[in-house]
Amino acid sequence: MTSTLTNVLVTGGAGFIGSNFVRYAIGAHPDWHVTTLDKLTYAGRRENLHDVMDNARHTFVHGDICDAPVAGPLVEAADIVVHFAAETHVDRSILAAGDFIRTDVEGTFVLLEAARRNPKLRRFVQISTDEVYGSVAEGSSRETDELRPRNPYSASKAGADRLAYSYWATHEVPVIVTRASNNYGPYQFPEKVIPLFVTNLIEGIQVPLYGDGGNVRDWLHVLDHCRALDLLIHQGQSGEVYNIGGGNEVKNVDLTHQLIRLLGKDESFIRRVEDRKGHDRRYSVSTEKLRAMGWQPQVPFEQGLADTVRWYRENEWWWRPVKERDAEYRAYIEQQYGGRRAH
Ligand code: NAD
Ligand code: DAU
């Protein structure tokens, strides 16, 4: 790694948002060398980085963030750390939470300990989530609001979020914490609602809509997320928290109808199933703080959704093998939700 380049470590860079960020960062910053550290769990794939894997300004390291001898030296060599690596799927955390505690909390601890030993570290971005605020009945969560996570995934993320903050408050590690809303776009693993529903509809399979379908999520295009992170890496203030939201609050049932229309299907493709346990009704973040810094989302939701559908249509090579490999999990989920109809 050349000393004239800024050395950026991206954990979880073979996942959905991480891979989009690695691609974005290499394109946007000719003076950056990006190192991806990824364990390649079921959700992480070399294929996500296929077009940047051999780039001279990218190094891929297959490793676990919990493994201090592997992760530590990479953090110690970095100018900037962007920490995406996590177990991320709420349904999986409801089935078994151990890996969430291990990676999301302990893994973050390993990275922060190494960050303490790196005096040239300029920025440690802790990628948190809007889920740490818990379900929001009215209004929008501000960065200073109380954290009330309600599922094992969001509780693990809240632990990591506050642990990262504590390393700023205690050890002056230059941490910023970001809390983004639901991302969508290319390379998202087909367990999350948009890629699951889109690929099911392409395959001619029904889509399992949880509960009454009235839960609300705020959709953020992954590239708008990347642009926000770029701004915050350069202009964020250590010790601060920043919400990142797309401003597109949509009920799941309406999202489902939009997808059905885009894929030329009809209502008969919706299967109402039992609700997710402890299902958060609504997330909503105030993005006033970030917008005051000059950021705003650039991708209108309708356009972003249509582009995303097109991407899954055109990239069956990417998702078909994953869905086949993941069949065991999907069968299990099917048993959990599918067997017990809501209506
Ligand atoms: P993802 O599940 O697609 O990817 C996670 C990546 O982390 C994978 O590549 C996986 O292999 C890697 N990983 C998991 N455990 C690891 C370990 N122990 N060591 C090294 N690598 C490991 O997740 P995503 O949706 O891209 O989310 C990325 C980050 O953004 C997460 O921290 C998540 O909590 C946060 N986030 C996601 C969303 C969203 O809507 N997807 C919204 C807000 C915040
Ligand atoms: O809000 C940010 C969070 O968004 C991230 O921190 C998480 O990592 C990410 O997984 C996502 O969490 P959600 O639980 O909101 O995403 P998911 O795609 O799993 O579900 C979105 C909504 O769709 C939720 O209300 C549950 C519903 N759903 C989901 C699936 C998988 C269904 O109705 N049917 C489904 O099959």
CATH architecture of the largest domain: 3-Layer(aba) Sandwich
Q: Describe the strand arrangement of the main beta sheet, using strand numbers.
A: 3-2-1-4-5-6-10
Number of domains: 2
Shape descriptor reads globular
- Would you state the CATH class of the largest domain? Alpha Beta
What class, by secondary structure content?
alpha/beta
Instruction: Provide the list of bound ligands, each named once.
Output: nicotinamide-adenine-dinucleotide, 2'deoxy-thymidine-5'-diphospho-alpha-D-glucose
Q: Summarize the helix and strand pattern as letters.
A: EHEEHEHHEHEEHEEHEEHEHHHH
Question: For the terminal residues, how far apart are their CA atoms?
Answer: 58 Å
Give a quick account of the main beta sheet: strands, pairing sense, barrel closure: 7 strands, parallel
The overall average pLDDT, rounded, is 96
Report helical residue fraction: 40-55%
- Round the Cα radius of gyration to an integer and report it: 19 Å
By DSSP, the count of extended strands is: 12
Uncertain parts: none
The number of helical runs is: 12
CATH fourth-tier homologous superfamily of the largest domain? NAD(P)-binding Rossmann-like Domain
Strand content is 15-25%
Task: Briefly summarize what is shown.
This protein has 343 residues and is of the alpha/beta class. The chain is 42% helix and 17% strand.
